[in-house]
Amino acid sequence: MSASTAVLRTEARLFTREPGALFWILVFPTLLLVILGLIPGFREPDPDLGGLRVIDLYVPVAILLAMIVAGVQTMPAVLSSYRERGILRRLAVTPASPSHLLTAQIVVHAIAVLASVFLALIVGRAAFGVAFPAQPWGYALAVLVTLAAALSAGGTLAAVAPSVRIAQTLGTIVFFPLMFSAGVWLPVQAMPELLRRIVELTPFGAAAQLLDETAAGGLPNLGGIAVVVGWTVVLTGVAIRWFRWQ
């Protein structure tokens, strides 16, 4: 077994032993979707939303919420903990290098988020009749580029945070603005035009637009893709520049 495979298996095993992370990434977004779906008014078509129901808009929101939790709450705290406890430094002198650990964390969190995506889509369809994306390949592309942006944000927080406590504090500070831009409190489509245009310049605001467009059968908007990919490139560059193994 290669060192990278061994690290990946170990990190996956440790991740499954973290009930908090499993709940907030896998369960909570879909649970929020179910709670909102039980509100009668959210299941009624709204002319102001182009005939869509509010619950239709919250399936993409649940997906984005899972990415935000994984990117800015869970992964930075884990990596900062490993650095603070000297695990990254000790790995540097073994066949399993710190880069293997970083890759394993990205893979594990990506798989957890993708599982949450499928869960939200299936529950939305089964419980509330939310249609599956009419443009599945475009929807998948939007999910993947947004996931890359979320995990690059996590890498940035892990890079600049010298301790677990600071990583958690920074994660909390950015968590709520990201939730707002993703439409957790107010769907992006329902925002005033000026606010919507500003929000769509953020990675999750642009992602919300991409998911809604592809869910309706359209192709991913190149402008939205450019915004999400641009944020990913910038955040990845910051993470690489400032990340320290010890």
From TrEMBL:
It is a multi-pass membrane protein. The lineage of its organism: Bacteria, Bacillati, Actinomycetota, Actinomycetes, Mycobacteriales. This is Transport permease protein. Belongs to the ABC-2 integral membrane protein family. One of its GO terms (molecular function) is ABC-type transporter activity. Its main location: membrane. GO terms for cellular component: ATP-binding cassette (ABC) transporter complex. Residues 20-246 form the ABC transmembrane type-2 domain. The keyword Ribosomal protein does not apply.
